[in-house]
Amino acid sequence: MSFATIYKNSIEQPEAYWDGEAKLIDWQQPYSKVLDYSKPPFTQWFVGGKTNLCHNAVDRWVATQGEKAALIAISTETGSEKVYSFKELQAEVSRTAAIMLALGVGQGDRVLIYMPMIAEAAFAMLACARIGAIHSVVFGGFAAHSLASRIEDAQPKLIVSADAGSRGGKAIPYKPLLDEAIALSAHKPGKVLLVNRKLAPMQLVDGRDVDYATLRTQHIDAQVPVTWLESNAPSYILYTSGTTGKPKGVQRDVGGYAVALASSMRSIFCGNPGETYFATSDIGWVVGHSYIVYGPLIAGMATIMYEGLPTSPDAGIWWSIVEKYKVTRMFSAPTAVRVLKKQPPECMQKYDLSSLKALYLAGEPLDETTSAWISEALGVPIIDNYWQTETGWPILSIARGIEDQPSKLGSPGIPVPGFNVKLFNESTGEECGTNEKGVVMIEGPLPPGCMQTVYGDDERYVSTYWSVLNGKHVYSTFDWGIRDADGYYFILGRTDDVINVAGHRLGTREIEESISSHANVSEVAVVGVEDKLKGQVAVAFVILKNPAAANTAEAQQALEKEIMGVVDHQLGAVARPARVHFIAQLPKTRSGKLLRRSIQAICEGRDPGDMSSIEDPASLRQIQGALGR
Ligand code: AMP
Fold first, then answer.
1. Residues 241-267: pLDDT tens digits?
2. Residue nearest to atom 4 of ligand 1 (CA)
3. Mean of the pLDDT values across residues 384-393?
């Protein structure tokens, strides 16, 4: 069947299509209904079916390829490398599950995982899945305040963490940040399970903190059976930034997610059991959930967890891994490729990359130069794919596992089966025609694997993402897009105040709130500004309570550093603005709304657009002045 026919079937007869795809995973109890869309926009996939993510990722492969590699944990930071077979992975996950049960974690309890890229992080995620606990992985680069807000929202019974991560050979302590976050949070976890890598000193809190290695020894022979879960039971929460200061907990199910990943591993990523998959992301992001941990394992592939820089010991490190483990499918982000592009090409050329079939890039717009450069360097297709934390798997791509279709530079591709993508004109609410810019939306029901709701807040889920247009429920991606005459989409940036730094999504509101906590800050505006390497960087414009504190160049520099330090401490260096400018007035509308988009346009050297609503045009000149224009 052609791609066009399969796609059409998936949209016109979603139940029949997904009933077929559901055969890619094991069900302990068959479902009675493929889709329940009786309460739109909420979807329930595979109602009544019982399954388990850990079973599908680990146990079901033990019988047929138990001795084959499942998890390859490589750290160029600590110089360690360990291959776990499916059998060994099952044993480790079982031990971690036994530890969790012994610490009082049960089905439906939340477990927060704040970990570096080490094997134990994957064990913890899979152990939660095994016993029906809901994990909430928090990116290790986030600092105390970011972590505290997530602890408060998810209310975990247990937190799994480590003494430290490591970056560029330098230990990054996690435990002090975690202690600070717990102190800040109104909710306190019952227990904290700590992996001691002996990278940084660690003070254990009596009665709360427990040592992973000690408990692992106690549970060394544990065999914890999987807990079969109804398909729509929640599997995890993953927080993502939005337009408010409060991150949203994206909640996913069990059965739909397993099916979506199995389906995408076949149709988009073309992965086969026994092969090796290498995604260079971090478990703290959605790519880490879907395509480091669950997706490849569900497809019976070995997956690589890599802790380290892409350029250390040299820029050949990733390619040496590809050669050594015969990686067939690799997943990364355009920023990482732009970093590599600055390195000598020999780094890459000295390795045998003949196993590699394709490189998948996502998370931010892929520019044509980067795409052309890496495609030539590797000699394999570069497959752009567009999606979001909320969807859990690609919305747009070229599904080469179904039919090899051409890609177009600058376009992530066409909608993949299951996603009924539409473009709507923001002002009229009408569907856009060819080459007409609009908001990228998805008509409900969303396919399996997408978010079920915002954790604990159905109302916020509906009001944030959904509208009714032409009588149909439609989900907004908050991205601008355009579709050409061949049906290829081009993504033109966010419609909201979310920015994308090196493929990492950040809310400008969160950064503004953090900067506002500095004693001398009266008002602040943060915008995302185009950057050659990182795609975008955050730039802050600050009005001081006491402007005299920044009346010399040195004082300004010191204050800029101090404000960056506040963001580092509260949110993490990932959110640090690239520049902090001091001004006396911010551009606002007469009703007091900050004109972020105009500020952004000026920063990028563009026309600030219609200024008829601005309160004082002089404020724009302030921005220009601060930028030295
Ligand atoms: P996140 O939820 O952190 O994965 O961020 C999702 C956002 O990243 C999307 O809404 C887009 O703005 C952007 N994005 C992701 N993938 C792509 C892509 N392939 N091309 C352009 N933008 C992308």
1. 877 778 899 999 999 999 999 999 999
2. 388
3. 98
Please, what are the domains in the chain? 86-253 (3.40.50.980), 498-626 (3.30.300.30)
For residue 66, give both structure tokens. Answer: 């138990």
Confidence of residue 440 (pLDDT cuts 50, 70, 90): very high
Task: Report the nearest-CA residue for atom 3 of ligand 1.
Answer: 505
Q: How far is the CA of 459 from the centre of ligand 1 (A)?
A: 24
What atom in ligand 1 is closest to the CA of residue 505? 3
| Length of the chain in terms of residues written | 629
Percent of the chain with pLDDT over 70: 100
600/44 Cα distance (integer angstroms): 40
User: CB under 6 Å to ligand 1: residues?
Assistant: 240, 286, 362-366, 384-389, 412, 477, 479, 491, 494, 500, 505
Read off the pLDDT of residues 336-374 as tens digits, 9 standing for 90 and up: 999 888 888 788 889 999 999 999 999 999 988 899 999
* CA dist., res. 269 & res. 398, Å (int): 10
Taking Cα atoms as reference points, which of 537, 535, 526, 600 lies closest to residue 574?
A: 537
Q: Which helix (DSSP H) or strand (DSSP E) does residue 193 occupy?
A: strand 191-195
- Residue 174 Cα to ligand 1 middle (Å): 28
Closest CA to 358 of 407, 415, 295, 395: 407
Report how many helices (DSSP H) and strands (DSSP E) the chain contains, helices first: 21, 33
Closest protein CA for atom 6 of ligand 1: 388
pLDDT above 90 for 19 = yes
Residue 294: what are its φ and ψ, rounded to 5°? -75, -50
Q: Are 300 and 274 in contact (CB under 8 A)?
A: yes
> How many angstroms separate the alpha carbon of residue 491 from the centre of ligand 1?
9
Calculate mean pLDDT across residues 99-108: 98
Token pair for residue 492? Answer: 């033109």
Question: What is the distance between the alpha carbons of residues 350 and 377, in angstroms, rounded to a whole number?
Answer: 11
| Cβ-proximal residues to 609 (8 Å cutoff; 6+ apart), any chain | 597, 598, 601
**What are the tens digits of pLDDT across the range 21-33?**
999 999 999 999 9
State both tokens at 524: 């602040």
